[in-house]
């Protein structure tokens, strides 16, 4: 079985051009950036709390969370019928999230 070579981002180095492009597109949406700030400001946040804080539909919130998760910025987990979002903490959390 062949093993695949790790990318620079998987080894902790700089992002690839493709990853940087995806991250830029994800964070260019002001609402999505606001959601990321809300998630990063707490250890764990329920999606129902995000819905209460932001004037968006459940479907729109779900889409934004999926985009943030696909870039590796957050992780989501199910707790019964609830979904919790957690910021993926990395060493030296970027100051632009504050």
Strand content: 5-15%
- Order of strands across the biggest sheet? 1-3-2
Give unreliable regions as ranges.
1-11
- Overall strand count: 3
Subunit arrangement of the protein: single chain
Query: Whole-Å distance between the termini?
Result: 44 Å
The sequence of SSEs as H and E is HHEHHEE
**Radius of gyration, whole Å:** 15 Å
What is the residue-averaged pLDDT?
Answer: 83
Shape, principal axes of CA atoms = globular
Structural class of the secondary elements?
alpha+beta
Q: Summarize the amount of helix as a percent range.
A: 40-55%
What about the largest sheet?
3 strands, antiparallel
How many distinct helices? 4
Question: Can you walk through the features of this model?
Answer:
It contains four helices and three strands; from the N terminus they run H-H-E-H-H-E-E. The model is unreliable at 1-11 (pLDDT under 50). With 98 residues, the chain is an alpha+beta fold. The protein has a three-stranded antiparallel β-sheet.
Q: Which descriptors apply to this entry?
A:
98 residues, disordered N terminus, 3 strands, three-stranded antiparallel β-sheet
What order do the helices and strands come in, and which of them pair?
Elements: H1 17-27, H2 30-40, E1 45-46, H3 47-53, H4 58-70, E2 74-79, E3 82-87
Antiparallel strand pairs: 1-3, 2-3
Give me a quick take on this structure:
The protein is α+β, with helices and mostly antiparallel strands and 98 residues long. It has four helices and three strands, in the order ααβααββ. It has helices spanning 17-27, 30-40, 47-53, 58-70, and strands at 45-46, 74-79, 82-87.
């Amino acid at each position: 079985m062949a093993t695949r070579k790790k990318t620079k981002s998987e080894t902790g180095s700089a992002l690839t051009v493709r990853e940087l492009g995806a991250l830029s597109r994800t964070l260019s949406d002001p609402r999505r950036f606001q959601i990321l700030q809300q998630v990063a400001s707490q250890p764990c946040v329920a999606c129902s709390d995000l819905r209460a804080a932001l004037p968006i539909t459940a479907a729109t919130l779900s889409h934004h969370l999926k985009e943030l998760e696909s870039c590796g910025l957050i992780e989501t987990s199910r707790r019964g019928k609830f979904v919790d979002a957690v910021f993926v903490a990395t060493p030296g959390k970027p100051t632009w999230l504050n």
